[in-house]
Amino acid sequence: MESKEQIKLYQLDHCPYCQAVRKKLESLNLAAWVVPVPAKQENREDLFAVSGQRSVPVLVDGQNVLTGSESILNYLDDTYGDGKRIAPLSNNYGIRVKVKGTFEEVIERTVAALKTIGFGVLTEIDVQKTLKKKLDVDVPRQMILGACNPNFAHKAMEAEEDLGLLLPCNVVVREAGKGEFWVSAVNPLKLLSVVGRADMLPVAEEVKQKLAEAMESLVA
User: Fold this and answer.
1) Residue 122 in domain
2) DSSP code of residue 44
3) Residues 113, 28: one domain?
4) What's the pLDDT tens digit per position in 122-134?
5) Main-chain phi, psi angles of 39, to 5 degrees
6) Does the residue 176 lie in any domain?
């Protein structure tokens, strides 16, 4: 099916969710007008006027306004593909960005970014130190941060009593090279897929968007 009007994609180049949508558009041979948005969310008044939110990606196709990469990818497959929802070739169980700095600086910035979206860090696991102590092996520096938003956690555990098995949400800072680190956050939609509760997907989508905002801010 051909698009009657040019599709618009409001996005940031470094946003992993935007990258997934761009890959999907390319795989479907769909031309799109890529609209860059300001790095700071408070400056995204034009995006808010279009979609009612300040997070990217946002796709506009005629009268249809789609927010959130999962919804956009499904829409594109259903509307312009063969209806088969095939995930793009990417690390789709996590949200990943590359950040420059020292290990300590990147961890500090990551914790601060999580705090801005209402997530506190409950646990810290220094993978390098732990494996050196337990197995006497040397691995690149890596820190696993157990992040949690009390409101989201409470809402999810009220709906599913055993959901605590999947909490907290892990955020990983991992050495990528000299002066560079990967910062990855788990994709709650993938995490929640093991529960099989469609009614909980809106909460997972909201958490995903929050975590994407935090990841995005690290490279803004």
Assistant:
1) yes
2) -
3) no
4) 999 999 999 999 9
5) -65, -40
6) yes
